[in-house]
Amino acid sequence: MLACPPARILSIAFRGRFFGVCAVSGRSAGQPTKNRATSVILTPILLFVASVLGAFALVLLMPRPGRNLRPLGGLIAITALGVAWLSVALGTDLITQITEDKLGLPSVAFAYYYVFSFIAIASAVRVITHKRPVYSALWFIMVVLSSAGLLLVLNAEFMAFAMIIIYGGAILVTYMFVIMLASQNEPQHEEDIPEYDRYAREPMWACAAGFLLLAVLLSVYYSPNPLQANPAAAMKTDAELIETHLADRALKADGSNQELASSPSTSATKLSNAERVGLDLFESHPLAIELAGVILLVSLIGAIVIAKTHVPNEDELIRGAANAKETGA
Amino acid sequence: MLASLSSLALSHFLMTGAILFVLGMIGFVTRRNLIIMFLCTEMMFQGVVISLVAFAMFHSNVTGQTFVIFVLTIAAAEAALALGLVVLLFRRRRTLDAGAWSAMSG
Fold it and tell me: Does domain B11-96 have CATH number 2.60.120.260?
């Protein structure tokens, strides 16, 4: 689906501004049509305001020379996130009115969503603004844990724990190893941190471009044809899957295998998340599994080749670096 | 409005995913430390994963979650190769500064 061009949203917004102000002013709160008009006008504006605020805050939060404006940047960043959530909440009204379709999550899930996604976004900001690489990696673990929490909110338990194990357990340990290997010693003072960690490279342009992309991405929600759940894409029901792929279990449900059928871990009519993912993986994507194995093998061999590459004059380089540090100190 | 604040739709999760993706992208562009740059690509993967799982939930089709397995595979392969390359570059110049290799930009 293509994004609704921002110009079009703005034109809708400005054409309807008077109407929107009337709707905001209160007396028409009970009328759904006017409420919808308010949402149509307010949400894109709120979204763009949030994007501009976010870009501004991130520029202030970036490590750079000069005055330290980080507390101010943090405040503006929290404001921007709040405005963005407000805009999405207003837009949710709009979207659900049109599609009549929510995610069907339990009603308390929204609280967990706000907590986890706040932690994820705040930690992500710390990852890209922290001056010491080790702490960046530690904050990234927080991002992984809280986005695993978001996956739990979405009832994707298998993916949540796979993420924690693979990202938090394997990939991040590799990163920590390399950071330890490549940084000479833990700097004690601010001045000991190397210059390339202390200052960001063109934060202003990067933030402007990044948040422009964010605004355009998010304006998809307010396109004239909002996303609809595709009923044809819905998977087979659990009962059908069990009948086609797990015939043994269906037999058990008949009573031919009593002790297995009565055990709490196997249910005759309901599949767990991991079972559904596994069935889909091996039923629909067998070639992709083979390719994934080949990619892992290639990267394994590649990593060994890279690690064994000979660096000319490496001893001299190490000695030179040590000398430079001594003279510098 | 309070009612709409306390209900979740697809757009909530897409917004979190998009913000994580954009933060990772900004980090990749602005940081000069090679290791942090690759850490930021992993953060972009996180945003993509959240969007994929949210779409899987929205369309009640589990293929979105299956795809996350392949995203994890690629992330692991990328981390192994990229970190090997970073260590090799560090051995040559004794610095993690991406600017030290600006001669390669041609």
Answer: no
